[in-house]
Amino acid sequence: MRAEDFLISLTTLPILFSALHASSVVQCGKFNINQFENKAEITDLDEHPWIGRIERSDKDGAYAFVCVGVLIGSRHVLTPAHCVARVSPEAVHLIFGDWDASNNNTAADCDKGVCAPPGQLRSVSKITIHPDYKERDHQNDLAVIELDKNVEFSEYVEPICLPPAESVTNRSGLIVAGYQIPEGRPDNSLAYRRHKMKFEQSENTECHEESWSDVICWTTDRNPLSGSALVEASGSPRKYYLDGIVVVSFNLLGYHRGCLSIRSHLDWIRQNTSQ
């Protein structure tokens, strides 16, 4: 090999390795325009792949699905503090990539002739509750969960992007993705599948009087589980960003909910998710 050929090879190696590394990095906030624009209440298998299930064990060791967790990286999850407060990490596990919560997470979920691989079960190594969390009035109702090991990214398990610091002035077109509480229809398997709900900001004065600066009031005709994600689609290329998580309901006529604003807590989240 000539010296100049050898030098060219050395020069191109970093570029090659950089390209290979870039191809292996999963981007956050995967966006699909067809899924975004359809009117379906139940998501596709690979839609909103950052939505996970939080399960807690009781005194007999049986696990129950209690809240939604939102994946923001390979090992970190956001959820309301009230879902995991006063619970040891050993009593909690999470499941990602499991579209249908009514069956065993080791079973493959299928829809429209397509089947996803079984969900990924992860134990918890650490739970960090926001230091200013106040359970009684849901102030700073936020926790970071650190998994015991990284999830394996695929089209069915991916993180969502954290939002930019700038606030959203026009909240039209936002979506709440997660699971809903199957009230009154526990035997309806559709109630346990991953849902998406149209976001409509609430102008109800009681909701705003009871809420706080970091809570976004909204209304819906359904009953989302705590931790369900309020997501916005923006940017170029368009991506999903986590705008909030469902933390509270209000005893008003109809379904009124409060979402904790993620923008209000970006610094704290980054401090507690840095590797």
TrEMBL record:
| SUPFAM superfamilies for this protein | Trypsin-like serine proteases
Matches recorded under InterPro entries: Peptidase_S1_PA, Peptidase_S1_PA_chymotrypsin, Ser/Thr_Proteases_Immune/Dev, Trypsin_dom
| GN (gene name) | LOC108071249
> Which protein family is it in?
Belongs to the peptidase S1 family. CLIP subfamily.
* Signal peptide bounds: 1-22
For biological process, the GO terms are: proteolysis
Record-annotated Peptidase S1 domain positions: 26-274
User: Which Pfam families does the protein's record reference?
Assistant: Trypsin
SMART domains to which the protein is assigned, alphabetical: Tryp_SPc (SM00020)
Q: Is Repeat a UniProt keyword of this protein?
A: no
Q: Which GO terms describe its molecular function?
A: metal ion binding; serine-type endopeptidase activity
Keywords for this entry?
A: Calcium, Disulfide bond, Glycoprotein, Metal-binding, Signal, Zymogen
Q: Which organism is it from?
A: Drosophila kikkawai (Fruit fly)
Stated name of the protein: Phenoloxidase-activating factor 3-like
Q: Which PROSITE patterns match?
A: TRYPSIN_DOM (PS50240)
